[in-house]
Design a protein that fits this description.
The complex is a heterodimer of chains A (about 220) and B (about 425). Chain A has about 220 residues and is α/β, with parallel strands linked by helices. Chain A has helices at about 10-20, 35-40, 60-70, 85-95, 105-120, 150-165, 170-180, 190-205; strands spanning about 1-5, 25-30, 45-50, 55, 55-60, 75-80, 95-100, 125-130, 130-135, 140-145, 145-150, 170, 210-215, 220. In chain A, a hairpin with a 2-residue loop joins β8 and β9. Chain B is an alpha+beta fold and about 425 residues long. Chain B has 3 domains: about 5-145, no CATH class; about 190-275, Orthogonal Bundle (Helix Hairpins); about 285-420, Histidine kinase-like ATPase, C-terminal domain (Heat Shock Protein 90). Helix content of chain B is about 55%, strand content about 20%. In chain B, a hairpin with a 4-residue loop joins β2 (about 85-95) and β3. Chain B is rod-shaped. Chain B starts with a helix and ends with a strand. The chains are: A alpha/beta (about 220), B alpha+beta (about 425).
Chain lengths: ~220, ~425
């Protein structure tokens, strides 16, 4: 998978690049509008991560250029601007997702994965991990081909864990992922433990392997061993 | 009690007028009376002179009885050794009116055909006292009319004179520093009022400028913080992936993680507050509060589980309010969060919508909170708790924007926040 990261903050760009590269993505990084437009004119990408405030212009111009060239890349805006107007404008010009800074790298990764799944969608949209298969559209989970009783939130959590396989996910990252828009207000991670416990039990009862590992006091990790 | 400026001037006028009236009325009365008595005395003396000049020479001892018979007010009596003229006031019983009437009387010695007699002349004073009364009434009436006139003229004058002042007052009263509308003062002909308006204008301009800078500062600061926060967050995310982290290090990382999240929330909430002040959320819609609560209920029920809280909803009647939908959501979420965060293990949360008001009650610490600072930013009852300290001020701000009232009270071991719409 090939990604283009357009971000002027070097430290952030390096962290994103590292996190994604470890996940079998090829992540190219440019830090200004001029280079970005040059790149998109020459290459095709699976996904573009776009910052809006660039040293030589507005990220929206790149979006417009992409649409102008009839490019079909999935675009995720990553910006410090969080007004509803900016979001709406972004979606109207053709962005597929919008992530407000600061964000967890794990969150960015599952957003990219979801976007690529949607883009490459061909009839069935199923995520498979060993004996577990998740049907994104019908919101069902099968373990060893048997449907299990699972809530939407647990499916969401499962996708998040599998998507970040072998990565340590902090409790706050999981809490923020599960809370969605409410994450800005929440300062309570207690419910994360309850969700993890329930999911673990459901998978275990259905005969799945014990993939969810607790990492000291830090958080959890989906570990295939 | 506060008095109006106008009433104060009028009161002074009225007091002065009354004082003058009180002093002037008796003075005027006595002066009139004295003048009249003098006039009566003069008349009596004139009558006596007339008698001596014209009547006395033509009279003799025999027609004195006739004179006395035909003159009610002038009598000739036997001489009683009174040689000088004496004038005094006395009363006689009037058989016609059947009442005692005051008279002014002159007693003098006269000589008729060489023989001395006592002459008595009198004037009825009744009519004069009536006259004095009439004069008194007239005087009172004049003063009263004068006073009433003075009252109304002053009132009218003051009103028109102070009109620019009241206009200015109205402008200042309707001025709010967080609203964009600036008060406009009309120019007057009076120097003092113009001075007042100019200084107020200057004051407002200066304060608005300071307020704006302050507001922009908070917004910019919050905005600028987002990028380093993003880097901070990303670095921690990267660091926790390392496999050689010891337990001690991981505890530090966990604490860092929690604090960066908290910083993040703090920042977002500050941004929210400053955006509300910048009137970003101005478009309003009709919102059903019951729906808004229901929409958030699942999420917060989940949040409440960790503390084993019981949430009871008593939506007796749906309350519909006019508000920005985002803000209504933020309000409900913050009320929920507040009642969960400050609750005790196995406590309760009661939500009710009644009589155009919304009430969130929750169990918690067993003493009332200090309601004075409760809604201030960063005011925390317990400094060690990890909340942002902005929740209640956000609630208050949303209420202010929409013109709602927020009140807090503590009874039956429940802390209640009520929003009245």
């Amino acid at each position: 998978m090939k990604l283009l990261l357009i971000e002027d903050e070097k430290e952030l760009a390096l962290s994103i690049q590292k996190y994604l590269t470890d996940k079998d993505f090829v992540c190219e990084w440019v830090y200004n509008k001029k280079d970005a437009i040059e790149k998109i004119s020459i290459y095709d990408y699976d996904c573009i991560l776009l910052d809006l405030m660039l040293p030589d212009g507005n990220g929206f111009d790149i979006l417009k250029e992409l649409k102008h060239q009839n490019k079909a890349e999935g675009i995720i805006i990553i910006s410090a601007k969080e007004t509803l107007e900016t979001r709406i404008e972004g979606f109207e010009i053709g962005a597929d997702d919008y992530l407000t800074k600061p964000f967890h790298l794990s969150e960015l990764l599952v957003r990219i994965q979801a976007l690529i799944r949607r883009k490459n969608f061909n009839g069935n949209n199923i995520v498979v991990f060993n004996e577990i298969s998740i049907d994104i559209l019908s919101k069902t989970v099968k373990v060893n081909n048997k449907l299990i009783d699972i809530t939407k939130k647990e499916i969401d959590l499962l996708l998040y864990l599998i998507g970040n396989e072998n990565r340590v996910l902090s409790k706050s990252a999981i809490a923020e992922h599960l809370s969605g828009d409410m994450a800005d207000m929440l300062d309570n991670h207690d419910f994360v433990y309850a969700h993890i416990k329930n999911l673990k039990k459901k998978l275990y009862d259905a005969g799945s392997g014990d993939y969810i590992k607790s990492v000291y006091g830090l958080g959890y990790k989906w570990n295939n061993e | 009690m506060n008095k109006k400026l106008l009433h104060k001037t009028l009161r002074a006028y009225l007091l002065y007028s009354l004082l003058i009236l009180l002093i002037a009325a008796p003075v005027f009365y006595y002066a009139t009376q004295k003048l009249y008595l003098q006039e009566a005395d003069d008349t009596l003396l004139l009558h006596k002179k007339e008698f001596i000049e014209y009547a006395a020479p033509t009279m003799n001892e025999t027609n004195i009885a006739d004179w006395n018979k035909f003159n009610r007010n002038r009598k000739i009596n036997a001489f009683d050794n009174l040689s000088t003229d004496t004038i005094y006031t006395t009363t006689y019983y009037d058989t016609l009116d059947a009442e005692l009437e005051p008279y002014r009387e002159l007693k003098a010695a006269v000589t008729i055909q060489g023989k001395r007699y006592a002459y008595t002349g009198r004037i009825n004073l009744v009519e004069t006292q009536d006259l004095i009364k009439s004069i008194g009434i007239l005087f009172l009436a004049t003063i009263s009319i004068l006073l009433i006139g003075l009252f109304f003229i002053t009132k009218k004058m003051s009103l028109s004179l102070w009109k620019p002042f009241y206009k200015t007052l109205q402008q200042i009263e309707s001025f709010e520093i967080d609203k964009t509308r600036k008060p406009e003062f009309t120019k007057t002909e009076i120097e003092e009022f113009n001075r007042l308006n100019t200084s107020i204008e200057k004051l407002i301009d200066k304060n608005t400028a300071i307020y704006k800078t302050q507001k922009e500062f908070i917004e910019n600061a919050a905005h600028e913080l987002q990028t380093p926060l993003a880097v901070f967050q990303a670095k921690i995310d990267t660091l926790i992936q390392r496999t050689d982290v010891t337990q001690e290090q991981s505890e530090i990382l966990d604490s860092l993680n929690d604090n960066v999240s908290r910083l993040n929330r703090l920042n977002k909430n500050l941004l929210l507050l400053s955006k509300m002040e910048n009137a970003v959320y101005n478009d309003k819609q009709t919102i059903s509060l019951t729906n808004c609560i229901r929409k958030n209920l699942d999420f917060f029920t989940e949040q409440a589980k960790a503390k084993h809280l019981t949430i009871k909803i008593d939506s007796g009647e749906d309350v519909e309010v006019k508000s920005n939908p985002i803000l209504a959501d933020v309000l409900i979420s913050n009320l929920f969060l507040n009642s969960i965060k400050h609750n005790t293990e196995e406590g309760e949360i009661n939500i009710s919508t009644h009589n155009n008001s919304l009430k969130f009650s929750n169990s918690g610490q067993t003493q009332a909170l200090n309601s004075e600072h409760l809604f201030n930013r960063f005011s925390k009852e317990n400094p060690s708790e990890d909340g942002t300290g902005l929740g209640l001020s956000i609630i208050k701000k949303i209420a202010n924007i929409n013109g709602w009232q927020v009140s807090y009270n503590y009874s039956n071991n429940l802390h209640s926040f009520t929003i009245s719409f």
